[in-house]
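Before the break, one more example. Copy the sequence into your notebook; we will annotate it together after we see the structure.
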Amino acid sequence: MKPIELVKQFIDSSTKEALVAHHGQWRKIAFSCDSLDVMRLQEGVELTYLLAGLPLPERLIWVESPFAGAVAASILQKKHESVYLKVWHKPLEEMTRRLWDLAKAEGSSSTWLEIEHYMRRNALGVEQSLVRPIRAQIREQLELRFGNQENFRIREGGLDEPISSRIVAQARQTFSEETWAYVFARLEQQFTNDEFALLSKMRFDHLFASAVSGQTLYCGLGGQDAETLELLSFAEHQGLDVPASRGILKMARHCGWWWPFANVCVVTFRPLNIRLDNLDRLHSDEAPALEYADGWTIFARHGKFVPARVIEFFYRKNLPEIEREGNVEIRRHLIEVYGVEQYLKDAEAIKIHEDSYGSLYRKDFLHDESLLMVKVLNATPEPDGTKRWYYLRVPPTMRTAKQAVAWTFGFESDEYNPLIET
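Here is what the structure looks like once it is written out:
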């Protein structure tokens, strides 16, 4: 987590303290895995609809994950009018305008501008850490399972070639049969007969995947709306009258993603677990980086999606599996899970060069380019004063350790001289 930047001096000390404390509270909300307070959540739904001038929904549909919520919403939107713009988008716009009008009227516009800038400079990171990955994985997992797999295209890394579903399945992740059966059963319990009949029919439609993933753009995100709602929340905390936002603020404090329709509202639980690295990226070598109670998960290492088998590899580390891996990116993850130093030792990698800059190792593969890694000493001491060795992957064209280290800094070998760096 990056250090918090301080606010300007013209904001009084009590406001500064309140702002920093409020920011910390919203970070906890944004990454919360707490269980639902059903009574307060129901109050939040009622308040949200009432403030929008809408009749209360006749039903609440409870599901455990954004994945299940998007499936539910894709069916309900064919039977019920979405009121997302009325209960979320419109109040947010109106109260944001009201905030600035009130600030102008009382002569505090500069203070609120600095408060807004502080929140932007110290962004909570939930959009990058959770919201985008969730949307991306809902889309990709559904396309892999229900889309036209023969025309499925990998979008990362610039690759846009049709590839077989078998290769995609090896490189990507999808939900399990158990998860889908659970979601299906949960919706059967809560849908009307007509709604469930439509779900039973629609899941065989080739447009089902895009219909479901499209719903992730038209919903409240609960606590994961923190970056959007933080300013209005602080305005309310400071005594500014922004009443129309109170419903969505209450929802954000007490639930996960939610979809409002006329007569019915879909509400999801928070995650069971969120695992992040020190840069707030989804990451775990041993378990799902994000998991929900219905079994829907995201596997990731340092913010990069990986198939479940990379995480399973942690419990059965072995050299043959690395040697057999045909996907270069996945092999890199397997080597990191195995432990780079241990892998180079166990795989009998050859030290091809050593100088004062480090040591260069090469591991050859039968049907792929060689793996080259340079071992270097971190110039920045650890907290205990020691210096740690670490390994960096470099192109197979490197011939010396200095050339390899220089490449990591974007230099040619003869241009790199750390002794005269400023």
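The two ends are 27 Å apart (CA to CA). Residues 13-273 form one domain. Try to locate both features in your own notes.
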